[in-house]
């Protein structure tokens, strides 16, 4: 599965009413390549259970488009940002960074979509190659995260292409999606022995982690 995400920072807080109204007004997509669309409104940007260096870019909304492969229409959406701001008016967006990702579902999310969804932005250590980052993350780290007590779902999104800084480094190397029943379970999971082991391993290949609790809105239509 391929995903395109728009990490957005807006000029004002988006209320739940604004998000719901904007989503309701979206037209139905006629593009068969678009398999799904989710708008994630950030509700909490605290680290929730972890103590880790944090990056400077702080989005307050994250949009996701899902595709079966790297199709022409997906590449067009990635290149032009067409529809990726979803229900957010263009004049409200202060900054938007697009990333093209390879999605790896380690633990399928709960079917009822209940509980809490947590998304995290990862940046690799500068001394770690792209190949080593993927190997460490997709293999050993995925096994460790799956062992967290109370976890309900886990997806990895490896960034294949996206915005870079002046030094040519990617602003984002990976996006994490985790599902837990509640905030207390998140805190307890990362305080557990399994959580301590997981975060100790993270230091071997990850330099920065920004975590967010989000309110996901699944959308049947795409702009």
Automatic annotation (TrEMBL):
<dbReference type="Pfam" id="PF07110">
    <property type="entry name" value="EthD"/>
</dbReference>
<dbReference type="InterPro" id="IPR009799">
    <property type="entry name" value="EthD_dom"/>
</dbReference>
<protein>
    <recommendedName>
        <fullName>EthD domain-containing protein</fullName>
    </recommendedName>
</protein>
<dbReference type="InterPro" id="IPR011008">
    <property type="entry name" value="Dimeric_a/b-barrel"/>
</dbReference>
<feature type="domain" description="EthD">
    <location>
        <begin position="125"/>
        <end position="206"/>
    </location>
</feature>
């Amino acid at each position: 599965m391929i995903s395109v995400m728009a990490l957005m920072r807006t000029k004002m807080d988006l209320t739940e009413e604004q998000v719901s109204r904007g989503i309701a007004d979206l037209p139905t997509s006629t593009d068969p390549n678009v398999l799904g669309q989710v708008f994630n409104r950030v509700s909490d940007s605290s680290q929730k259970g972890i103590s880790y260096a944090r990056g400077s870019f702080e989005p307050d909304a994250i949009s996701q488009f899902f595709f079966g492969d790297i199709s022409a229409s997906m590449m067009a959406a990635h290149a032009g940002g067409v529809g990726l701001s979803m229900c957010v008016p263009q004049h409200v967006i202060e900054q938007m960074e697009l990333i093209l990702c390879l999605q790896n579902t380690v633990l399928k999310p709960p079917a009822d979509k209940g509980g809490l969804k947590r998304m995290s932005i990862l940046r690799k250590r500068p001394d770690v190659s792209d190949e080593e980052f993927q190997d460490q993350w997709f293999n050993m780290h995925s096994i460790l995260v799956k062992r967290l007590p109370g976890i309900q779902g886990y997806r990895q999104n490896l960034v294949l292409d996206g915005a870079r800084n002046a030094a040519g480094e990617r602003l984002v190397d990976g996006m994490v999606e985790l599902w837990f029943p509640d905030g207390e379970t998140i805190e307890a999971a990362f305080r557990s022995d399994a959580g301590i082991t997981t975060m100790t391993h993270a230091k071997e290949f990850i330099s920065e982690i920004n975590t967010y609790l989000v309110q996901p809105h699944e959308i049947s239509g795409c702009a």
